Amino acid sequence: MDPxxxxxxxxxxxxxxxxxxxxxxxxxxxxxLGSPSLPPRPLSAPPAPVPVVDPSTSKAAAVPAVTETxxxxxxxxxxxxxxxxAHDEKQSGFAKRFMGNMLVxxxxxxxxxxxxxxxxxxxxxxPWGDNNPFVAPNLRKxxxxxxxxxxxxxxxxxxSSLTAAExxxxxxxxxxxxxxxxxxxxxxxxxxxxxxRRAPGLTSVEVRIxxxxxxxxxxxxxxxxxxxxxxxxxxxxxxxxxxxxxxxVSQLSRRxxxxxxxxxxxxxxxxxxxxxxxxxxxxxxxxxxxxLDAGEDAGERSTNYKRxxxxxxxxxxxxxASAWSQAKVPGEARLRFHLLTHIxxxxxxxxxxxxxCAWSPWTLDQILHGKDGYSAEKxxxxxxxxxxxxxxxxxxxxxxxxxxxxxxxxxIDQILVGLKNxxxxxxxxxxxxxxxxxxxxxxxx
Length: 445
What we know:
Residues 1-88 are annotated as: Disordered. By secondary structure, the protein is α+β, with helices and mostly antiparallel strands.
């Protein structure tokens, strides 16, 4: 047989391999092998079994579910926080505020409010919380200056031969320009900090309560409401100027009396900032603050709960003791809060359903002269009954968990007894605020 030519394939070579072993090239080829190709399944064959997937091995499928759940909870918490913020910080529309704060609009709203208060006076107190239904508009120096420049300047430019329609358009444009300049000035000026004035026995804090409201009705709730004994009494409305100056109109019925009046809304950010501001104005020489909350002073840093700051204070306009219309500035309320230095303040933890602020209807005039059947024991028990319904015991400081009611009662006694011991020679109180506009107030923060 002739040897193989150059074109013929090489002859087969037999290699003996020991049992249980394989050549290296076969091992490499076996590692590269993929899934075997199967012939197509005939249509008449029974269905193949569904493969069972182990949940522990399918990590990629479980991650989206967890992520989606976390996103759902985060979205729910964000929506709840936004809803609470929207409830606490209500705002009127920009156009409504822009037009409503014009000088002519303020004059018109004051007239309408006076007529409305006069009609309702037999059944309700006035917005100021008294028996005077007339509401005077707030007039500032720059209002008169801007009005003079805009209106007289427009008259000089356009001339005096105007029809009625042209006059309306002219003055409307002047009012709009006037309000635009005023609004721009407020933006340029920015927020101003509070100012503190100290006199013997008295600390006066002047604050600017910024808001974006126009004629909103205050939502009031009354604790232990009952029939009134005197329909003409108006002492219970002593704190209403605070609400009306910040464009929250209150309606107190003459037929009802109450133990505590609660302001449920609309709330302002300035309401929550007021309590820390007043507490920061209390010095070491003043009466100490009685804290029953588990806050920083109690050794626990926690801010996930609300508090009530309880003060005895007097309120007045920022210029005089009785010109309330001057305190109702467009876009803000300018008031003075007066704290007696020998009267302690109290801080207690409260539930999330507590109001924005609350006040007791008893005034300093009734306390000093014992009017309308006033007694310190009755007043103390009323405040304690109300606080017992709003205090959150889970956030009371650890050392007072068993005795916080006794400590709170002792603190309220110190407030009321201190009011009875006001020196008659302390003339700074009479100069700062009227006795009819002083009482116990609680601010949430």
